[in-house]
Amino acid sequence: MNKNFYITTPIYYPSAKPHMGHAYSSIIADFFARSKKIQGSNVFFLTGTDEHGLKIQRAAEKKGMNPKDFCDEISITFRELSKTLNLTNNDFIRTTEERHFKSVQNLWNILEKKNEIYLSKYSGWYSVSDEAFYTDDEVENIDGVRKSKISSSQVEWVEEESFFFKLSKWEKPLLKFYDENPKFILPESRRNEVISFVKSGLKDLSVSRKSFSWGIKVPSNDQHVIYVWLDALTNYLSALNYPDVKDKLFKDFWPASLHLIGKDILRFHAVYWPAFLLAANIPLPKRVYGHGWILSGEEKMSKSKGNILDPIEIIKEYGLDPLRYYLIKEVSFGNDGNISQEKLEKCINSDLANNYGNLCQRVMAFIEKNLDSQIPNKIEFTNEDLAILENFNNSYQNLLDYIDDQDINSYINYILERLFAANKYFNDEEPWKKKDEIIRLNTIIYVSLELIRKITILLYPIIPASALKVLKVFEIKENEIEFKSIRNNNYLKYGKKINRMSILFKKIEKND
């Protein structure tokens, strides 16, 4: 197994405060970062803010602020969101930092030196909201307003001098790369979408603007600023101290293991970014995963529609771990999903309070009352006991594969199966009726504790704070969590005292 794992969130555009879509991408990235860390990988987890472009400039002007001060203010809310979501990110990068300027201008100089960039004139449709150019075929007229068919954002006609990147030159090399690396783009539907787009023919890409000034200057022509996506995408290199390719961070972690993004920015990451890297002779990332949107009703959340769900408000009311669990379990990864108060409350009551929380509470209360809060020390496993414990060992490779293939749905389904089996085991074995059969009673309790420990380790990347409360019962610290320990059926020390555990999840009672 490759011990180095580099994962990135989308670089967030701070033109307004964070919403549930930002929280979703970050929580999913944190799930993978924590999963790989407890597998023994050396993880580098990056998030940050993309702070250049016309959209930012206009938002700042509207507030009567200069763009840098505006970005300083808004970027803080994204940095604080990382803490609120209990993310384990190693770095938070801003594209207004000096280290990023150096990276972007170095990449530009390489592309220019290799004759991949030329000066010409751009005429076409541009979306300020998306910071993206669209062809005539991708634009439609709705009630007299031109909009992108892809994002529904308004577009405007732009004509100006611009530097162009020779994207058309990389059409065949990109298709060859996709063919040789079938899992470079996931899920499959996104891969098919990208291949179809590239096969339809690539046109050279405008990579600079003259009509606004908020951005990184083109090194050879300071009348131009570098197009926001060539600027923004380079953050993945900047955080590793590129262009110093001998730097330990760069040597250890590039190419990136996983760019986790929303499906609306797939083209930039799966077409433009690899083309820039191929042209500059920089190794390509190993995977781009385009997940679905978190919807408000049936629509994508956006400031203009006024349908933004605030993750901070939901966390205040229900807690962070319930939100993390809901987004990871209830949204089928790769597809769109929506969040509603009713579904969230049902999920908290059913899965977290009744299923997981109640199992932990019942077993711990029984031990405190009947076994002096001690892990039993005289046990004899039956074949049935061993079968339920060994299931984790037998499924171990599958679980590793689920993480490596970003198959969150199968991973969490396995946890739910094991939770059902653990609850059934405790109920069917009825330890409260075995008080005269000491060895059998001890064994039932030991097996139940081991099941709780194993399930909790699997849940740790999803609901870390709650999982740590349970692991504290066994005096297992966060830095001691090892994924491979789920294979061990005798991990818990016989005779050791266990700590008391507070209620994990309170049921939400409905007032009639």
CA-CA gap between termini:
54 Å
Derived from helix and strand composition plus strand pairing, the structural class reads alpha/beta
| CATH domain class name of the domain at 341-487 | Mainly Alpha
Determine the CATH superfamily of the domain at 341-487. Answer: Isoleucyl-tRNA Synthetase, Domain 1
Largest sheet descriptor: 6 strands, parallel
What is the radius of gyration computed over CA atoms, rounded to a whole number of angstroms?
26 Å
Total strands: the figure is 18
Outline type: elongated
> Helical amount among residues, as a percent range?
40-55%
Strands of the largest sheet, in order across it? 3-2-1-14-15-9
Determine the mean pLDDT. Answer: 93
CATH fold naming of the domain at 341-487: Isoleucyl-tRNA Synthetase, Domain 1
Low-confidence runs: none
CATH architecture tag of the domain at 341-487: Orthogonal Bundle
Number of helices: 18
User: What fraction of the residues are assigned to beta strands by DSSP?
Assistant: 15-25%
